[in-house]
Amino acid sequence: xxxxxxxxxxxxxxxxxxxxxxxxxxxxxxxxxxxxxxxxxxxxxxxxxxxxxxxxxxxxxxxxxxxxxxxxxxxxxxxxxxxxxxxxxxxxxxxxxxxxxxxxxxxxxxxxxxxxxxxxxxxxxxxxxxxxxxxxxxxxxxxxxxxxxxxxxxxxxxxxxxxxxxxxxxxxxxxxxxxxxxxxxxxxxxxxxxxxxxxxxxxxxxxxxxxxxxxxxxxxxxxxxxxxxxxxxxxxxxxxxxxxxxxxxxxxxxxxxxxxxxxxxxxxxxxxxxxxxxxxxxxxxxxxxxxxxxxxxxxxxxxxxxxxxxxxxxxxxxxxxxxxxxxxxxxxxxxxxxxxxxxxxxxxxxxxxxxxxxxxxxxxxxxxxxxxxxxxxxxxxxxxxxxxxxxxxxxxxxxxxxxxxxxx
Length: 408
Known about the structure:
alpha/beta, Ubiquitin-like (UB roll), 3 domains
């Protein structure tokens, strides 16, 4: 009797477990409770996020349990720049794709005593530090074998002609791409000073910092200076700038009937200050404006110190800041986007907002300040709409901001 009773309990327990398992499987396989609402891509630096998404062939609203993770990994490995790929489910509604990229650059650019990972870590630290582009490039030049004019020195006595697209405000050729064929006025001491300015010494890989200190102590060769004979056989020609982009944008706006003003091609500084400057320009234009439709154009590159664990880029973040300030400004549309088609580690070039954006956020019960403080602009615009996705443009002349004003 006792054995029979135990047997019945065991059978009952097995049946219950089977029923629960079947229910869970049914919910995950057929119901809408476990569907892909977000696809989070990690590790993409050079490989476009859009290319990864398209190659993975996983659509939003797919049942999470039905995603063939092994097949997705095999698809991703067809992208030659991807060395390793991992796909996993992030319950209840996120598919996480994490990749490691192969490095298409020449390994001769890695200085002795440092690794490629050291340089990658340095770059990520600099991007999040809030440093200006010329400050970041000063450091990059001094941990390179080709930047800071050293490519021209390596090529000497061959003749060198560089055709340059400027992604730096003011078009200083010694800063663009860290000036591989241009003399460099900066020093190792300048690089150390910048690291101290932004208080990132303890974050910098120790091998990198040691290399810079060796340079200060004259144990390493400095970058190319103006008197070097290699420069006699080197020519540099700028073939594209943001001034050209603004000129074409102005012509296009005129075709749509807008009275257009180029406000500046040198927009730079802290992103909060830039947002205020743009809003002041809008308000001043509205006071003076007699036209039905006006277009204001800005170009440059803002700086932002990344806080939190959000996802976004400086253009999306600027658009988010402006959307709050446009709450009581009807008839205004604002766009901020990167001319290279990418903004931060996302598949968007930027975002577009208007006076209704903040109301939409309120309707969706979204806390805009929370998204701002967490630097999570991409996910904000995923919810309310407004992401601008062009795909890579294969060029880069910094960021472009467009304001359209319609008289109410």
